[in-house]
Amino acid sequence: MPLDPDSVLNDVLNIVKTHNKWRRLETINLIPSENVMSPLAEYIYLNDMEGRYAEGTLGSRYYQGTKYIDKLEGLLANLMGELFHAKFVDVRPISGTIANAAVYAALTQPGDTIMSVPLNSGGHISHKTTGAPGILKLKVVDLPWDNNEFNVDVDESIKLIREVKPKIIILGGSVYLFPHPVKELLEAAHEVNAVLLHDSAHVLGLIAGGAFPNPLDLGADVMTSSTHKTFPGPQGGVVFTNREDLFKVIQRAVFPGLTSNYHHHRYAATAVTAIEMMKFGKAYAEQVVSNARALAEELHALGFKVIAENKGFTRTHQVLIDVSNVGGGSKSAVLLEEANIIVNKNALPWDRGFRDPSGLRLGVQEMTRFGMGKDEMRVIAEFMARVLIRKEDPSSIRKEVIEFRREFTQVRYGLTPRDIGIDINISMLM
């Protein structure tokens, strides 16, 4: 039977409305790689640039009609450069993964070796042969990892760097509890003519607020990032460097190598977010880190096996817990979702595989944006304990979670259209 367009349209609208209400108003979102834009950033995100092309680089395009895109791209690059202390910024990558791939494509040849954090210790798939390095035919060697410090083993890594002589050394990851040793590995990296790349996707907003060390200030050759995790903008990517020689070849890898449309409509919302970080970033980042520590401490007090107790649990937005004793990561994540608490399962360094990992990876940045503080983190920990440790019915807890969220629906640390004289309410079809 052929589809009825009107019926399908109604289904589409209902799905979006239901999703928006559920995720924005009724759930506690603890996914570390997500965030929520401010009302002003969301308002300006929809614009005519969403359907336009501007292939090429700033001031040298292959299309006409790009003069305002040029202005906005240049303004955004300047904002991001000032915020993150970078002389050269490319905002054209459409994701952090594309930003990483551009660096690899620019600075390596097939058969070359790169080094990165082990996947089950927090390394991202875009640093591994399962992602862009594999497509580019690169060899990937794991940096030695110290489980006790929950960080890269500096001494062993220096030895291995000198032995392997990689082209790129990648720090940063998708599980990121403590700053990686940028300064400590830099001399060994440059000794073998390697580029030290820091993937700051998870901590970019914390860097903006001064709550996490800036890798560029520590000497990293290149910094890549997405723009939608602790940095609460639209989905996108960015490359930073203070080396013009590297920047020129990376630019060519972004275009024509990996992209031809940069999703320009996101530029304005990203610029608004950068301005918000200049205005509110310090208070936001400090509250995020404080909230993460409070959540970790309360989870520990309630009986959860929180990783890195000996290190104070975390210095970022993330908390990592071992739930192998209460059903494992997959089962625990499903049970929490039934209670409207959104988390993601995650492998721990001692896991043998990734199909049913032992851990849960939590992030507090979105709930912080909605105004939650340390007291609310303790409430969240209690909800989680009731589901996973005391084995209460998740559906009954879901009702309490929905009631709890009703007090936290307005985005903080950001701007609204009314702040600039535009009288409009952002409803997101809810």
UniProtKB/TrEMBL annotation:
Q: Which terms does the UniProt entry file under GO BP?
A: glycine biosynthetic process from serine; methylation; tetrahydrofolate interconversion
Which organism is this protein's natural source? Answer: Vulcanisaeta distributa (strain DSM 14429 / JCM 11212 / NBRC 100878 / IC-017)
Family from the record: Belongs to the SHMT family.
Q: According to the UniProt entry, which residues carry N6-(pyridoxal phosphate)lysine? A: 229
User: Where does this protein reside within or beyond the cell?
Assistant: Cytoplasm
Specify the pathway.
Answer: Amino-acid biosynthesis; glycine biosynthesis; glycine from L-serine: step 1/1
* Any GO molecular function: pyridoxal phosphate binding
Question: Cellular component per GO?
Answer: cytoplasm
Asked if Repeat is a keyword of the record, the answer is: no
Q: Kindly state which keywords UniProt assigns to this record, in alphabetical order.
A: Amino-acid biosynthesis, Cytoplasm, Methyltransferase, One-carbon metabolism, Pyridoxal phosphate, Transferase
Quaternary structure, from the entry: Homodimer.
In terms of superkingdom, the source organism counts as: Archaea
Q: Matching Pfam families, A to Z?
A: SHMT
Q: Where is this site: Plays an important role in substrate specificity?
A: 228
Annotated ranges, domain Serine hydroxymethyltransferase-like: 11-384
Give the chief site where it resides. cytoplasm
Which residues are (6S)-5,6,7,8-tetrahydrofolate-binding?
A: 119, 123-125, 244
Q: What is this protein called?
A: Serine hydroxymethyltransferase
The task this protein performs is described as: Catalyzes the reversible interconversion of serine and glycine with a modified folate serving as the one-carbon carrier. Also exhibits a pteridine-independent aldolase activity toward beta-hydroxyamino acids, producing glycine and aldehydes, via a retro-aldol mechanism.
